[in-house]
Each structure stands twice: as structure tokens, then as C-alpha cells.
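Hey all, sorry for the wall of text incoming. These are the two entities for the joint prediction.
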Amino acid sequence: DQQVKQNSPSLSVQEGRISILNCDYTNSMFDYFLWYKKYPAEGPTFLISISSIKDKNEDGRFTVFLNKSAKHLSLHIVPSQPGDSAVYFCAASEGYGGSQGNLIFGKGTKLSVKP
Amino acid sequence: ETGVTQSPTHLIKTRGQQVTLRCSSQSGHNTVSWYQQALGQGPQFIFQYYREEENGRGNFPPRFSGLQFPNYSSELNVNALELDDSALYLCASSGRLGVRKETQYFGPGTRLLVL
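and here's what came out:
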């Protein structure tokens, strides 16, 4: 049973517009969430994270929103650039009190930003 | 600052053989985690090492084993290889002082093909 779900396998966006990537989770013990970006033939690159005590975290063009009651988080990229084209993974962790900080990943969403 | 490095980049083995994959953690990190990423899936947690001790394990059989050395580098060993072990193996390091340890930084991975 998947604890972290990314229901959209792919997303296509025009350059300069907003990209919104979504992620749902089922485990209410998750208290830390991360987004990673992955290019082909490379390892995942850490983008941004959010703790469950917050509902928003912003870093430049990237903003992550967390809705705990809906068990939903989203990553907003504004403005989108062609270099953002990659597979984006959502990950979650139960933190210190749970599974020693191992990350549970979704299956990823492939973002294509068209010039 | 040196990032996470992994060797080899690619490997071909046959069923029943044994394999050792290597990882050097990022400077200042004391924790190493290993993940398996099958095609079209997100990374799956294998195990984590902290100060040379196993510090958590995912749902993988005992033929997956590991080591962490005093310099925080690590090895993943897989015995009795099966066809389903074909995947990208990712190493991630974490644990820099002041940074939450769930924030893991990944290497480029080792692609293993079992024939």
C-alpha cells in the first residue's frame, strides 16, 4: 500500500507560467516532507522541505504548501523555466520518533516546461 | 565541498553472483542511507547507517547488507543476485550539524543489471 502518492505521472506547462505538482499521503505520523528533482542519469537533488508545524515554505521560485487535514502537499514553481523539466519526487518521513528518518517516496511526476 | 559520490556507475552481473557498491558521503555528514529505485518507481529505502551501526531497515531480505566505515563512507552488498535486483541504487548522506537529518543528499547512483 502506497503511503505517498503522486497521482499525475506527467505535467506539461508553458515557460513563464506556474507549475503545480501534487502529492497525497496516508500516514498521519509523517511530520516532515521533502521535494526532490531528478534529471536522467543523475541522483535526486533536494529542492525544498516543510515540517508539519508549518503550512508553507518558500525558497526563491519554489513554494511548498502543506494541508495536514487533507494529507496533501503541493509544490509551486513560479515562473517555470525549461531547465525545470525533470521528474519531481515527493518524500515523507516520520522523523525522530519513527523510522530513524528514512524517506518514503512517491512514484514521481515528470514535468515538461515548453519554451 | 565534495558531494556524495558512488562507484561504479554501471555494473552487469549474472544471477547468483554477489555485488558490492560503494558510497562516499558528503563532507560533514555522519549518516548514510541506501535506496533502490526500480524503473518507473520512486526510491525505496533499504537501510541506514549512523556511526557504523545499522540504524533502520526497510523491507529488504538479509542478502542485502551494508557497512559504514569510520570516515562515514559506506558499502552495500547484495548476495545471491536475482533478476529483480536490477535497479538504480542510490546512496544518500545526511546529518550535518544544524540540518534536520531527514534532509538527505543523494549521489548519482549505480545502475545494476542482473542477467
